[in-house]
Design goal:
single chain, about 160 residues, mainly alpha, rod-shaped
Length: about 160
């Protein structure tokens, strides 16, 4: 029974060498390739994370640019609307002023035309009165006037003036 518990030096040295050889082979052919594969996966994952962060940054920049563009578009639309309102108001005021000027001109022309027509009527009336006065003077000269003739001449004059007007 002693052989079962005993240590044989040559077997012990061979088993130790076998253990070191197995450890070396496992390290070289199993751990090293597995570690390299794990390192490549880690690097690939890091690259994907960096790409995702870059894409996120780019998306944020595009979103900010879009928001800025929309703000500028709203401001520009507001400016255009404001300008259009001001222009419409100025045109409205201009049209009202022009209409007032035209109305005043028409009123002045009407007053002038009325004054001319009145002056023309007065001149025609003066000329008729002058003609009648000449007629009356001619009749007065032709005959001697007495009180009854004088009244008759005045009545005829008034009657003639009434008929001509």
């Amino acid at each position: 029974m002693q052989d079962l518990v005993g240590i044989v030096p040559w077997t012990f040295v061979a088993q130790i060498c076998n253990l070191f050889l197995q450890a070396y082979l496992i390290k070289r052919f199993l751990f090293k390739p597995v570690n390299e594969m794990l390192e490549k996966r880690r690097q690939k994952a890091d690259a994907e994370i960096r790409d995702a962060e870059a894409a996120k940054t780019e998306a944020n920049a595009i979103r900010e640019e879009y928001e800025q563009s929309m703000k500028e578009a709203r401001d520009k639309a507001s400016d255009i609307l404001s300008t259009a309102q001001k222009t419409a108001q100025l045109q409205s005021e201009s049209i009202l002023k022009e209409a007032n000027v035209q109305a005043a001109a028409i009123r002045e022309k009407a007053v002038s035309d009325i004054e001319q027509e009145r002056q023309k009527a007065v001149n025609e009336l003066k000329s008729e009165i002058g003609g009648m006065a000449m007629e009356i003077a001619g009749k007065v000269i032709e005959r001697e006037i007495n009180e009854a003739d004088h009244e008759k001449l005045i009545d005829d004059f008034i009657k003639n003036v009434g008929e001509t007007s």
